[in-house]
Structures are given as C-alpha cells and as structure tokens.
Amino acid sequence: MADNDGFRPDWAQKDFYAVLGVTKDAAAADIKKAYRRLARDNHPDSNPGDTAKHEKFKAVAEAYDVVGDPDKRTKYDEMRRLHGSGGFGFGGGGAGGGAGGGSFNLDDLLGDRARGGGFGDMFGDMFGGGGAGGGRRTQARRATKGPDVETTATISFTDALDGVTISLRLSSDAPCPTCSGTGGKPGTKPHICPECEGAGYVVSGVGGAFSINETCPGCGGRQLVYDATCPTCHGSGRGTSARTIQARIPAGVKDGQRIRLRGKGGSGDQGGPAGDLYVTVKVTPHRIFTRNGDNLTIDVPVSFDEAALGAEVKIPTLGGAPVTLRLPAGTPNGRTFRVRGRGATKADGTRGDLLATVQVHVPAVLDTAAREAVEAYREATASKPLRAGLFEEA
Fold it and tell me: Where would a tag sit more exposed on the chain, N or C end, judged by fewer CB atoms within 10 A?
C-alpha cells in the first residue's frame, strides 16, 4: 500500500528495465519502442481471457509510466541505487521499518533532498497515490513561461536612423487580480477536483494500447475546485494586465522590421519567466529622403545650364551639415552621385551612403529673356539634330 505521501515501498524492489526488456542505460527511443511492442502483444483486447497476458500488460504499463518519463526515471534510478546499497529497506513496518527492525526517518536519511517536503514530495509525483481512482497521480503544477505579446510602434524616419526609446502601453494576459489565479471566490475553501481526482488532467484513449493526457475540464489543470468561482474571472484564473514599458528601438531599424524584447511579454504562471514582446516597427516617410537598404537617396533638381556647363550644387544631409556636389559639364539627367558615410546606421555601427540623383529641371513657363536665349541655343545647334538617323535605323 502507499504511505501518506503516495510512496509505494514495493516499487523500489521492482526492476522496470527488466520488465520492458531493456538495459538500465537504454535510450528513451529504445524504451518507447519496447513498450509499444509489449503493449501491443499483451493488450487485453487482443488476448481475451488470457490472464497472464493481462497481468503482463499491467506490468509493462506500470514500468513505462516511470522510466518512460525523464524526470521520473532519474528519481527512480536514485531510489533504486539507495535501496540496493542498503540506504533504506522496506520491512513489515513500511517506510518506517529498517533491516534490523528498528525505526528511522527517511527525511533524515536523505538530508537536504527531503527538506521542505519530506520523502513523499521527492517521489510523490512518480508513484500513484490513494483516492477513488487508485491510479491517478497528484502533481505540483509546473512553472510555465508567460505568453508572448505583439504590438506595433510608429516612429519617424529620423528616429529609425538614429534609434529611439519609446513608451508602449500594453495589455496582456495575467493572473486574475481578484483570486490571484486560483479561479475561486476569495474566502471560499478549495477541494480536490472530483473529475481528475487532483491530477490536473484526464486520460483519454486513442485506440489500441495508447492514451493521452488532457487538461482537466473541471479544474482547468489547477487540481483544485472551489465552492464558488471568482466573480471577476468566472473561474478561469486569468485576467488582463495593463502596463507601460520603455522599449529601445535600435538605430537603423527598417520599416516593417520585427524586434524581439526578451522578458517584456505576459507574466509567467507559478513563478515561471515572463514571455517576450514583439514590436513591429512602422516608419513614417520623409519629405525629401528615402531609404534603399543602408543608403539614403535624394533627388537633386538642377537647371539645364548647370547640367550642360557644370556647377557646384549644395545639397542637404540628414542630421548633418550640407555637402557640395561638383557636377561636371555635360552631366546627364538621372546620373547618381555617392556621398560616403551620410546614410543609415548599419548593424556594425558604421553608416551607409547618400545617393544623390540629378533631375534636370525643365521650366513650365519662360520669360522673354529666357525664351530668346533658348531660341538662340536652338539656332546654334540646328546643324546637329539630336535625333539624326534615329528613324532611318528603326
């Protein structure tokens, strides 16, 4: 029988590896393979009336329940080692009886391993406890990571290049503030969930020798139910948390880029770590500059005479002093000049370039003096038509 902590002394004397036909150092995949084969061969549905195979099936299931789980397997191996070396025995008095008939305290024997919870806490999650179900295990809920949170932030073109710290107002899933996540009305007493008998899950068959564990619908995995549910969360144990955080957007971020901020998401459960925050950055366009990778681009309007005769043209830079472009005579429309180091910040801290593209400006209206000058130019170049031979070759 099991003691008050759910520990069954006879399990320390069973060799579950031998039951499954594997060695003590067998890989998890080999243990699973052996279990599936034995469970299939000895399943009661396939062997009606065969009591021996029915008992074998139970033994195989019992063995795999322990050594098929990495955490339980580690505890089982240690318990076997202590038992085999005489560290403790199981006489007629159960956990209190020693080899010589005297009594001893297992918590004292295990020292710090048993502090704060006793021997049953050490192995209680591995061996079946009592209760109407007889075979259900009551396990402490594991700490779980909080949910990830996603949001969108809009920043200016300049802030995207230089980096900026912004404030974000977030709403995320969190334990209910009224019941602290228990799901019960404050002041009411908890009881073991009758549906899962305190296991936090229920077992569902999927056919053959296999079954799966599902979160108990009665308690939501919390193992306990209350006389009255929380009026705020209606028994779910969850609520919404609103908070403001400061987030650093790195220099050089691009429009549509997704940034991950570790530990800035929803709160964890049962002491688990917080989730992550994912920020999708939207960058507002600039009136003059555009971006091409790590480079900035700008269109520079120039007059016909500047392009034809050459000129020095002063152009702006983003966040810096203006620079001067020296246009050679005969600069064509659409030619691009490169100003090094005046672009966006790269990941390594250096900067891209500024690409300035010449756009020859054609005036929509000419005054009398300008028109006379253009007509004089037309007459001077009449002997060299621009499209000479173009149509003949076509």
Answer: C
- Asked whether residue 263 falls in the same domain as residue 183, the answer is yes
- Rounded to whole angstroms, the Cα distance separating 286 from 51 reads 82
Residue 352 lies in a domain: yes
Residues, the chain, total? 394
Cα–Cα distance measured from residue 312 to residue 337, given in angstroms and rounded to the nearest whole number: 13
Last residue of a domain, one of 283, 301, 317: 283
**One-letter amino acid for residue 393 of the chain:** E
Predicted confidence at residue 195, as pLDDT, reads: 84
255 and 187 share one domain:
yes
CA distance 35 to 39: 6
List, for residues 73-129, the tens digit of each pLDDT value. Answer: 888 888 777 766 544 444 443 333 433 343 334 344 344 443 444 444 444 444 444
Residue 208 domain boundaries: 149-283
Task: Give the pLDDT confidence score for residue 157 in this predicted structure.
Answer: 93
Whole-number Å distance between alpha carbons of 340 and 38: 72
pLDDT at 39 over 80: yes
41-51 pLDDT, tens per residue?
887 767 777 88
What does the H/E/C string look like for the chain?
A: CCCCCCCCHHHHHCCHHHHHCCCCCCCHHHHHHHHHHHHHHHCCCCCCCCHHHHHHHHHHHHHHHHHCCHHHHHHHHHHHHHHHCCCCCCECCECCECCCCCECCHHHHHHHHHCCCHHHHHHCCCCCCCCCCCCCCCCCCCCECCCCEEEEEEECHHHHHHCEEEEEEEEEEEECCCCCCCCECCCCCEEECCCCCCCCEEEEECCCCCEEEEECCCCCCCCEEECCECCCCCCCCEEEEEEEEEEEECCCCCCCCEEEECCCCCCCECCCCCCCEEEEEEECCCCCCEEECCEEEEEEEECHHHHHHCEEEEEEECCEEEEEEEECCCCCCCCEEEECCCCCECCCCCECCEEEEEEECCCCCCCHHHHHHHHHHHHHCCCCCCCCCHHHHC
d(CA 219, CA 196): 8
Residue 340 sits in a domain whose CATH number is 2.60.260.20
**What backbone torsions phi and psi does residue 203 show, to the nearest 5 degrees?**
-100, 130
pTM of the model: 0.48
